[in-house]
Amino acid sequence: MNVVTCLCRTRPLAHALLLAPLLSSLSAQTPAPRSAPDDVIQLEEFNVSGSAASGYRATNSITATGIGSKISEIPIPISVVTGELIRDVQADTLSDALKYVPGLGTSPRNESTFIVRGFSGLISYRNGQYRRQLFTTYNVERVEVAKGAAGIFFGTVRPGGVINYITARPKFDAAYSEGKVTFGEDSYYKFELTHNQPLTKNLAVLANVAVLDAGGDQQFEFLRESYGNVTFMWKPTPKQSLTFEVEGINRSRFYLSSYGSRAISNSRYLFNAAVPAANQTTTAAATHLRNWLNSQGYSATPGAANFVPTFDMFAPVYGPNDPLGRTISLTNDARQTQKSRTIDLSYLVKITDSLVWQTDLNQAYDNTTGLQPSTGDTNPYADGSLRFNFEHFINIRDSWNADSKFNWRFDALGGNHTWQLGYEFQKVNFLRPGYLDAQNRYNNSPMGAFIYNFRAGVSTPVSTTAGMTASGQDFNIRRTTYEENTSYFFAGQSRYLNDRLFLVYGTRYNDFSNTTHFSKPVTNTGLTPNVLSTYDEGRADPGWTPQGAVLFKVLPEVSVFANASRAVEPNFAIDADGNASEPIESSSTDFGIKTELFSGRLVSTLTYYDLERGNLAYRDTVREASTSKSPYFVYGNTESSKGFEGEINWSPNDQYQLIFAVNHFSEAKVTKSNDATRVGTPLNYNPDTSYTLWNRYEFRSGPLKGLAVGAGLRHSDAARLTGDPQNVIMMPSFTTVDFMLSHRFTLAHRTYRAQLNVKNLTDKLYRDGTDGYFADLRRISLSIGTRF
Predict the structure, then answer these.
(1) pLDDT tens, position by position, 200-248
(2) By the 8 A CB rule, do 404 and 22 touch?
(3) 462: which DSSP letter?
(4) Which H, E and C letters describe 19-44, residue by residue?
(5) What does the DSSP assignment read for 153-197?
C-alpha cells in the first residue's frame, strides 16, 4: 500500500485537512492586505537551517514550539548540537553527537537507546516524525533536544524529553558539490558526497550518497552501511513551498550480542571451588547461583539483614577488567541486517501575511533481521563456563503519518500572539514472524539448540546457522500488530511587555488503539488464556496533555523561566488473565535561568527538574514461575527523577569556542509500587553526577592560519544499571578524553579541510551507557574534504 492510498483511507477530518491546502492555495496567488510587521509570518520560520547557528551555538529551535523561535525566548530547556560540532567530534551516529548534552545517556551497543533525565525509550524524531532505528549523521544539519514532557507537540513521549534531528534542505543561491573521505584504524573507510543544484529560480535539489566499511578489534567484527537521499524544494509562488524527500539506509554488521562482555555474577559464587557443579542441561546459571546462595543462608528477600542479590558485580571472568570478554565472540556468524526507507512531503502555503497552512505526510519502513546467540542465559556458572542458545528474528515496521495545522499570528490585548491548531494521524503496522510450537504457543523468534560448557577464549566460536538448523525451528506464523494514534492540539505563544514576557501554552488530545492478529490460532494471546485465538486487542483511554510555560526577562541578558507539562503513553500490557493496564501518565516541571551575555557570546541555561512517570507495568516473574503462565505484571508503579542540569556555550572571540554541560540527580527511583520491595529502587543508569566539556581554538592569522585544535572530556559517576531489587549491578565511574586537529589549506586553487580525530585518547578500558557494555578503545581517524 502506498502512502497516498493509506492516508486517503483515514478519517474524514484528515481528508478535509489534507484537501484544505489545495483550496487555500488559490488565495495565495493574489496579494493579501499587508499587516503590521509583527503580524507577518515568514515561511523560513518553518525551516530552521544551519544559517541560524554560529559555530557551536544555535540561536533558533523548532522542536519545542513547532515554529522557528529564538532559544533565548523559549521557556523550555533546549540543547542543540550543531552540524559544526558533529563534524568536529567525528560523530557517525546520533549517540556520538549527543554525548555532550547534559542529562542524556546513550549506549555503545544500541544506538536506539537514549535516556533523558532518567527515562529511557525510543524518543527520537527525524524532522518531527518518529524514527525507530539507524540514527546516522548523514545529511544531518543539527540535533535538537527539548527537555521535559512536551505535552503539546509530542504528547505521547517520556517525560525526560524528545530528540529531533533535522536534515539539510536544498539551497537556491549556489550550485556546489562536497566530498569527504575518512579512514582509520581497524579497516575503517567512509566516503560521503553531496551535490546541491538550483534547477530553476523556484526549484532546487539536494542529493547525498555515502558508504561506510569498517572492521574492529573484536573477533569477526564488521560494519557496512550505504546511504542515499534526494530532496527537492519547489517554491511555485513566493507564498508556497513544497518539499519532497526520499531517504534510504542499509546496514549490516556482526551482531554485538555475540561478545560475552556483559556476563555478570556474584562474587561469593564465581570461581568458588566449594560450589558444586551444575547440570547445565536442566539448570540455568542464574538459578544455580540463587539456589547456592540460599543454601548458604543468604536471603533472597530485599531488606533482610543477610540479603545477597543474585548479581552484585560484573563477573571478571577473564581478569579484573574483563579485557578478553570484550573481544572474544561466542559465535562466528552472528549478524544483524537493518533497512530503513523514508518518504516525506511537506507543503506550506501563506494564505495571508498572518495565516499559514502546513501539511506534512510521511511514510517510513524499518526492517531489522537478526541471527544471534540468545543473551538471556550467558551469565557464567561457578567455573566460568557458559550455556546459550540461538535466536532468529525479523521485525518490520510500516508507518504512515499525516499532520496538518493552521498557524495564525496577530496582535491583541497588548501582546503579539502565534496560535497553532493542528491534527495528527499515525497508522503503524508491526510484523513479527515467529514460531508456533506443538501446544500452539507463539514465540516471537525461532530458537536454536543449546550450547553447553562453552568457555570464551578457549572453546571454538560456534555457528548460529548450524545451531538453528539443529533445533529444527523455523518461522511458521505471522503476528501483525496494528496501531492507530489520533491527536488534536492547540498551541499558543504570546509576547508581552515589549518582548520581556513570553508564554507558551496549549493542550493536546490523544487517542490510541491497538489490535494484534495471528495468522494461526494461538493459546497465549493474553486476551483469552488457554483458548485458541487469532487476535488480541487493547485500547488506551484517550487523554489530554496540557502544557504551560513562562519566561520573563529580568534584564535584557537574563531570564527566568518555568515549564509544566503532562504526557500520556499507550499501555497495551494485558496479562494472562486478560487484565489490562491503565495508560502511562507523566508529569514534568522545570524552573530555570537563561543568560545571553556579552552580545550573545556567553549563553547558559541552568534548570531544576522534577519528573514523574506513573501507571507502569513491571513483569511479575515470581507469579509467572508459580503459575507456569505468562505474562503477569505488577501494576501501579511510579518512577521519579529530580535534579539540576546546566549548559554553557562560550565564545569570547571568533577563534575560541567552549561548551560545558553538567547533570546531577538528587533523586531517580521508584516512588510507588504494589510490590513494596520495589519502592526506593534506583532507576537504571543514572549516575549521581556527569559532566562533559569540549573546546576548540582556531588560528585565523599568522603562520598557523587555518589550523584548529579541539579537545574534550566526559565524566560519569558510578551508576546502577538495573531496577530489579535482586539484581544489583553497578557500573564503575569513568573519565575519557577526545582530541581533534584540523587544517584548512589551499591546493591547486581549491580549498581542503583535513581533520585528525583521536577518540578515547588514553586508550581507557571502561564500560559506558545504559547497558554497561565496554566502550571502544582508542580510535584514530583521518578525514579530508573539499567543496567543488
Answers:
(1) 999 999 999 999 999 988 889 999 999 999 999 999 999 999 999 999 9
(2) no
(3) B
(4) HHHHHHHHHCCCCCCCCCHHHCCCHH
(5) T-TTS-TTEEEEEEE----SS--EEEEEEEEETTTEEEEEEEEEE
> At CA 470, angle to CA 469 and CA 472, rounded to 5?
70
If you write DSSP's letter for every residue of 653-717 in order, what string do you get? SSSEEEEEEEEEEEEEEEEE-SSGGGTTPBPSS--SEEEEEEEEEE--SSTTTTEEEEEEEEEE-
| Residue that is written with C-alpha cell 554553557 in the block | 648
Distance CA(261)–CA(328), nearest Å, equals 8
Confidence of residue 677 (pLDDT cuts 50, 70, 90): confident
C-alpha neighbours within 13 Å on the C-beta side of residue 381: 21
Handedness of CA 5, 6, 9, 11 (dihedral sign): negative
Dihedral sign for Cα atoms in the order 580, 583, 586, 587: negative
3-state secondary structure of 447: strand
- Reference 785, options 212, 214, 97, 191; nearest CA is 191
Helix (H) or strand (E) holding 590: strand 584-597
Evaluate whether 736 touches 714 at the Cβ level (below 8 Å): yes
Between the alpha carbon of residue 528 and those of residues 47, 473, 532, 534, 580, the distances in Å are 49, 26, 8, 10, 12
Gyration radius of the chain over CA positions? 27
Smallest CA-to-CA distance from 688 within 668, 709, 660 is with: 668
Provide the grid cell at 19.
Answer: 484537501
Strand 161-167 with 124-126, pairing: parallel
Residues 6+ apart with CB under 8 A from 70: 59, 60
Half-sphere exposure of 25 (CA within 13 A, CB side): 17
In angstroms, rounded to a whole number, what is the distance separating the alpha carbons of residues 95 and 35? 45
- Confidence (pLDDT) at 107: 74
Round to whole Å and give the CA distance between 466 and 452.
Answer: 15
Q: Hey, is 747 helix, strand or coil?
A: strand
Distance (Å, rounded) from C-alpha 98 to C-alpha 187?
A: 25
619 pLDDT tier (thresholds 50, 70, 90) = confident
Q: In this predicted model, what pLDDT tens digit does every residue of 303-331 receive, in sequence order?
A: 788 888 877 766 554 444 454 567 788 89
Q: How many CB atoms lie within 10 A of CB 608?
A: 15
Q: Which residues is 363 bridged to in the sheet?
A: 343, 400
Question: For all residues of the chain together, what is the average pLDDT?
Answer: 86
Q: Could you tell me the three cell numbers for 763?
A: 586508550
Closest C-alpha to 129, from 419, 360, 339: 360
Q: Which three cell numbers stand for residue 497?
A: 511587555
The more confident residue out of 331 and 47 is 331
Provide the grid cell at 187.
Answer: 579497516
Cβ contact 386:360 at 8 Å: no
For 539-572, give the DSSP string: -PPPEE--EEEEEEEEETTEEEEEEEEEEEE---
C-alpha to C-alpha distances, 353 to 24, 35, 384, 410, 412, nearest whole angstrom: 13, 7, 72, 10, 16
Residue 529 has pLDDT above 70, yes or no: no
The total number of residues shown for the chain amounts to: 788
Query: Distance (Å, rounded) from C-alpha 698 to C-alpha 83?
Result: 17
Q: Tell me if residue 288 falls in helix, strand or coil.
A: helix
Q: Report the distance separating Cα 613 and Cα 611, nearest Å.
A: 7
Residue 544 to residues 76, 569, 570, 582, 585: CA-CA distances in angstroms? 20, 11, 13, 15, 10
Distance in angstroms (rounded) separating the CA atoms of residues 49 and 124: 19
Q: What is the pLDDT of residue 19?
A: 40
Tens digit of each residue's pLDDT (9 = 90 or more) over 394-403? 999 999 999 9
